[in-house]
């Protein structure tokens, strides 16, 4: 199941765990070249850490591929878990003890979940009473320009639309998910940032370097023609013109805070 848009549930998994795992494994060698989004997310997670850390004896870090929280919390006993490390993306039945952690930090993971509600319930299972969950992910309007440019290109060349960009979890849906999972004092906020690229292929190359390219289960689409990306770039410029002839891509950085009851 997956959550996106206004609703909660999609009956079938959106993402291929096997494909996603392969993409993330390949990106382990390239991620630091395009880690700017993860760094922004992780810097915000660090800013939101409790000032009084005397009671934070057990901390779990999930994801956070830029490694900033791990560096910041050096000297504190922490467990670090990469859910993409194995052959399949681990999103449920996290391999940790119940009621064990005072704090769970999670970054650059939540937007790939097929069952976000089940995942949040699992996170809550791991937290002690009064424990804190901090999460940062890509959501909402992320890649809205690219989505529209590729949609127009598919219609121009093939006469139909195909799923090429992942659906994103909107902040209001994330709030409902936290509440449904039983977290108290749930807070969700977000910030849209624009990143400039010289051409659409540079954007795609960065997404691949991050391991963030399309991992949808439904990959049914015509074989991309030689002129596809040239047409896509023309449509991108036409729909979202910039004075300096660059492409601007929107990324919606969403952050969640929840306390375990």
What does this structure look like?
With 261 residues, this protein is an alpha/beta fold. It has one domain: Rossmann fold (3-Layer(aba) Sandwich). The chain contains eight helices and six strands, in the order ααβαββαβααβααβ. Strands 2-1-3-4-6-5 form a six-stranded mixed sheet, sandwiched between helices. α5 (144-158) crosses α8. The longest helix has 15 residues, at 144-158. The chain starts with 16 loop residues before the first helix and ends with a strand. Mean pLDDT is 91; it is low at 1-10.
N-end to C-end Cα span: 26 Å
Number of domains: 1
Structural class: alpha/beta
| Structural Rg | 19 Å
Which H/E pattern describes the elements? HHEHEEHEHHEHHE
* Total strand segments: 6
CATH architecture: 3-Layer(aba) Sandwich
Topology-level CATH name: Rossmann fold
Our estimate of the beta-strand percent is 15-25%
Largest sheet: 6 strands, mixed
Number of helices: 8
Characterize the overall form. Answer: elongated
- CATH top-level class: Alpha Beta
Unreliable runs: 1-10
Q: Tell me roughly what share of residues is in helical segments.
A: 25-40%
Strand order of the largest sheet: 2-1-3-4-6-5
Mean pLDDT: 91
């Amino acid at each position: 199941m997956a959550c996106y848009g206004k609703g909660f549930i999609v009956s079938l998994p959106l993402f291929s765990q096997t494909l996603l795992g392969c993409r993330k494994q390949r990106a382990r060698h390239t991620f630091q070249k395009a880690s700017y989004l993860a760094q922004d997310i992780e810097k915000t997670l660090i800013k939101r850490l409790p000032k009084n850390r005397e009671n934070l004896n057990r901390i779990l870090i999930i994801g956070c591929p830029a490694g900033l929280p791990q560096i910041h919390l050096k000297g504190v006993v922490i467990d670090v878990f990469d859910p993409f490390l194995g052959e399949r993306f681990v999103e449920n039945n996290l391999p940790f003890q119940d009621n064990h952690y005072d704090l769970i930090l999670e970054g650059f993971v939540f937007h790939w979940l097929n069952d976000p509600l089940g995942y949040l319930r699992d996170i809550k299972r791991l937290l002690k009473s009064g424990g804190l969950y901090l999460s940062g992910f890509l959501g909402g309007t992320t890649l809205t320009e690219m989505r529209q440019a590729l949609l127009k290109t598919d219609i121009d060349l093939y006469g139909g639309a195909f799923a090429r960009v992942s659906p994103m979890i909107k902040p209001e849906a994330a709030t409902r998910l936290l509440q449904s999972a039983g977290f108290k004092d749930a807070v969700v906020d977000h910030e849209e940032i624009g990143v400039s690229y010289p051409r659409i292929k540079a954007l795609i190359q960065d997404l691949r370097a991050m391991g963030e390219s399309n991992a949808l289960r439904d990959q049914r689409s015509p074989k991309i023609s030689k002129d596809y990306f040239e047409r896509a770039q023309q449509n991108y410029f036409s729909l979202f013109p910039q004075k300096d002839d660059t492409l601007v891509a929107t990324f919606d950085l969403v952050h969640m805070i929840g306390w375990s009851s």
